[in-house]
Amino acid sequence: MTMLFKTVTAALLLGAAAVPAVAQQLAPPVIVIVDMDRVVNESAAGKQAGTDLQAKAQQLATRRTTLAGQLQTEAQAIGQGQQAKTLVGPALDQRVKAFQDKEAAANAELQRGQEDLGRSRQYVIQQISTAADPIITQVMRERGASIALQKGATLQHTASLEVTNDVIGRLNTSLPKVSITPPAAPAAAAPRN
């Protein structure tokens, strides 16, 4: 029994010694961290696009104010006509209908403007992300990294893992400007009968 115990113990010790040897053969993964929000917002292309998008948003806000003023003026005129009893019957109905049509058209215009602004933002992010991908791959190769993580996916990390500034610097050289005008959406296919 003692001999069996010694043999089993020796086999277990040899097996346990072999596991760390195998584990030591695998190099630990090298990770780099990239803050893509900073890449989009702080790169030259991102700053330029941000300025352009802000101007576009301001134009939309100005248009909203203009349309609201026009609708308010029309609503006041209808209200005054009702009070003075100069706007009654079919004339009132026609004027109210025209007002409702203008209001619906204004809301539709503003909705299209908001959607266009959203598509423009997404297009900017897409262009910057597409241009940043090969840069991140190059930085990974240079650092011997096998994994690149978005900063938001980490709980904690050391500053030495973060390569965001390097990515931004290289992106500024390769992509100094982007367009805020997305390509036209493909036309919707006609329904088949």
TrEMBL record:
<dbReference type="InterPro" id="IPR005632">
    <property type="entry name" value="Chaperone_Skp"/>
</dbReference>
<dbReference type="InterPro" id="IPR024930">
    <property type="entry name" value="Skp_dom_sf"/>
</dbReference>
<dbReference type="GO" id="GO:0005829">
    <property type="term" value="C:cytosol"/>
</dbReference>
<dbReference type="GO" id="GO:0050821">
    <property type="term" value="P:protein stabilization"/>
</dbReference>
<dbReference type="Pfam" id="PF03938">
    <property type="entry name" value="OmpH"/>
</dbReference>
<comment type="similarity">
    <text>Belongs to the Skp family.</text>
</comment>
<feature type="signal peptide">
    <location>
        <begin position="1"/>
        <end position="23"/>
    </location>
</feature>
<protein>
    <submittedName>
        <fullName>OmpH family outer membrane protein</fullName>
    </submittedName>
</protein>
<keyword id="KW-0732">Signal</keyword>
<dbReference type="GO" id="GO:0051082">
    <property type="term" value="F:unfolded protein binding"/>
</dbReference>
